[in-house]
Amino acid sequence: MRQHRIVGFTSFVLAVGFSTLAVPASGAVIPFSVRGVSAESAQITNLAKAQDLLDGKIQSHSDITAVFDVLNFNLSGANANGTPDFPATSPGYQTNFAAEATAWLRIPTAGAYTFAVSYDDGYRLSITGNTAQSTGQGHVKTDFLPMTFAQPGDYSVDLVYFQHLGSAQLQFFATPGTYSSFTDSGASFRLVNDVSNGGLALVSGPGAQPSAVIPEPSSLMSLGVAALGLLGRRRFA
Length: 237
Known about the structure:
Elements: H1 2-19, E1 32-39, H2 47-54, E2 60-68, E3 72-76, E4 78-79, E5 97-107, E6 111-120, E7 122-127, E8 130-134, E9 141-149, E10 153-163, E11 168-176, E12 190-191, E13 202-203, H3 217-235
């Protein structure tokens, strides 16, 4: 009976150690939630119609929500540059659609930041108290949007986008400081949430804590050795 209790205890200790591998690593990327809605037959020519499509006031062909680490869409006939298709787009339904990306963005320090939206056709960006938009149609454009944050913290992001005809593009960048071009001296634009390259990070909600840390392999080995050592002591007690 004693031996069975010892083995059971050791198995429990080892199970606790190895089950920790299933916990997301600290700093794991929290994605954008992106809802895409394609119109059945309506012409989506401005933000008002895009919002009507998202609100169900215009008949939709498809309505899909998916997650994406970054907003880096470029749809031009065949998918361009290896970037993903917008949700709800498919052959025959790659025009006249809307998308809405939502997230919580962590601003690490107070001060000025510049966001850049590259788009074709139009968008509306809202970041807790800051709003910018463009309803223009035509070729790809980039708007540089300086915003000032009085304090660090977590801010809600809502980015509505629409596509009428032709190619579709949406990219979302940011850099600390105030700039009017990607090439301005000192600018370090990165896709928002491209954390491996220094981009501003998303969080799961305001005040969210970092994910649990996966123990280093050496820690797991030490845990196993300690358990085996305890087994030896108990066996010969």
